[in-house]
Amino acid sequence: MPKWRGMAADLGASNGRTVLGEYDGAKVSLAEVSRFSNVPINLGGTLYWNFLGLFREVVAGLSKSSSQGKPPVSLGIDSWAVDFGLLDASGELMQNPRHYRDHHNEGMMQEVFARIPGAIVYERTGIQLMQINTLYQLMFLRLYRPALLQGAKVLLLFPDLMIYFLTGVKIAEFTNATTTQLFNPYLGTWDQELMSKLDLPRQIFAPIVSPFQVIGPLRPDIVSANRTEKLSVVTVGEHDTASAVFAIPYEAENYAYISSGTWSLVGTVSEKPLITELTAKYNFTNEGGVNGNYRVLKNVMGLWLLQEVLRRLDQAGQSFSYSDLSALALKAQAFECVIDPDGSDFLAPVNMIEAIQAYCLRTHQSKPSNPGAISRVIFESLALKYRFVIEKLEQVTGRSLEVIHIVGGGVHNELLCQMTADATHKPVLAGPAEATIIGNICAQLIAVKELGPAEVPLLVRNSFPPQVYTPQKDRSAWDQAYLKLLSLMGERGA
């Protein structure tokens, strides 16, 4: 019998899972209970998340686990950041949360900066300026859906919305709250002055709660309707990247990390936020960590590019898997083209393949003409962009980052892991792939007093040993390709 059993509900941008974690006093083991798609819905020209469907899946995962005789004693929820739901005076959800890729966010940064300069917004929050941020989504509602915003009594970020409908408790978990660009790290709370200057309703924001807290039991109706055992819902690193970084099995402090999935979050850990002219210049963000520290990082577009290529190929009747594309990329010509993965061309194109080809032609490069060539362009360009971000991290922190930890689903892409080592000239330790789930589970263990925060890295190393990738000795080809990336970024003013 395990010493402890808990459930992690991990909601990603393309799919979600419920996973049981068991702890025997020395190691953690995982068992997937359910997996489900997370498909956004375009309704009336607006892109929404299917919150109701995702909530049903989380509850079904709890019910299934209990029916199998493995009831968890706690539950933690993590998801992507920035998106939220609004509750009315009766505690009812006013509409499904909008998707951060919804086109209505376009132009909202300019609306905010017309009232408060972007430099001041960054200085007050330390969060990179991106149109997906909660701040700009709220500006859209203020300008174009004022009745909705005026009728709202509470704003809850996505995992906090789940917690509310599970427990009836309204909170804002720290790691997720920091991503909104409405949190002031100097004050340690919501930036009321910033909200006031933008005429945003200050009263709708829930109290901020740190990880490792027991929030409460499930609502009685959920327990009875789903035959779930009573359990405690606890706060974990509710921003999925915070949970993933919490599970990094580091030994030395001077490391960079890449949380590799739909997005690649490239960063390092700092005891305090780094908000300087240099971090502003490179648009680094300061997001809260599970331990109350800060994750100084930058978003890189990540495997979204490959996901969209695969989706387009599937629509064209060409059946490939991710491993197929990696195998074809390995055989393709090296450094045929370089793209900047963070170019606006790749945020939400109708056709990712055509967007990559058009970018290459526009920048006077050859046109990658087959799936292998296109995939290789993506992998090489991602590895080169990682190098750029890590070099800037070393600059802003004043530290040499000796090793790179890659966690998340991207660790399964061995070619990209090796290319990252080659491009950066640094050893890569890849794993665990399930870092978000593991970080979620470890936070629960701390909340129920089974584990201390300092014990987490060793527990993860013992339970899920990482794979090591050593950089190749010949650097010349990668260095030349890196110069091409820098040139391309200069052309677009980065």
UniProtKB/TrEMBL annotation:
Carbohydrate kinase FGGY N-terminal domain location: 8-246
GO cellular component: cytosol
Organism from which the protein derives: Acididesulfobacillus acetoxydans
Domain Carbohydrate kinase FGGY C-terminal, residue spans: 256-447
Family, per entry: Belongs to the FGGY kinase family.
EC number: 2.7.1.-, 2.7.1.5
InterPro entries with a match to the protein in the record: ATPase_NBD, FGGY_C, FGGY_N, Rhamnulokinase
Entry keyword set: ATP-binding, Disulfide bond, Kinase, Nucleotide-binding, Rhamnose metabolism, Transferase
A single BP term in Gene Ontology: rhamnose catabolic process
Pfam families listed in its UniProt record: FGGY_C, FGGY_N
Ranges annotated as spanning the membrane: none
Protein name, UniProt field: Carbohydrate kinase, FGGY, N-terminal
CDD domains the UniProt entry points to: ASKHA_NBD_FGGY_RhaB-like
Sample GO molecular function, one term: rhamnulokinase activity
